[in-house]
Prior knowledge:
Residues 1-19 have low confidence and may be disordered. The protein has one domain (27-152): Four Helix Bundle (Hemerythrin (Met), subunit A) (Up-down Bundle). The chain has a two-stranded antiparallel ribbon with strand order 1-2. The chain has helices at residues 33-47, 56-72, 78-92, 99-113, 122-133, 139-149; strands at residues 116-118, 150-152. The chain is mainly α and 159 residues long.
Amino acid sequence: MADNPDQNTPEDTHATGPQGRPQHPDQPTWVPRLAIEAAHHDQLVEHGGLQCIRDKNAREAASARLQQRRHYEPYTDLAALAAAYAFGIATAHPFADGNKRTAYVTAEMFLALNGYTVSWSDAEVVETMLAVAAREMMEDELASWFRAGLAALPPDKGE
């Protein structure tokens, strides 16, 4: 592995950053705004709620903060970025309903797009996201929670 985690070889797809945290060697794949809105829609269809964007600026800020963090803190690991997605959406309340659900699903999508998954029970997710929304769990604690459950996705058999 190279000294700088951002300069790993393609074989080091699951390299670690300076504190042993999972680190993807390239710029992460971000979750597109439309995918976040689609996840929100799907959560409302499945669980109910008011279909409405309450604050477009809050929605944009929740997504932009990750890219800004990665720019200024290039060694930020994927778990911390997933937590930033979830914390940003859950606390900014960009949607009229379904913010906590959308926050978690967006973080989960982000991890999947970047080759990782987490496997928490529904009860653990609900308990955690309620704590995040109530600000009883802060973003760094949420990052640790994601980090504890992080696992690499198996290689795609189609490649």
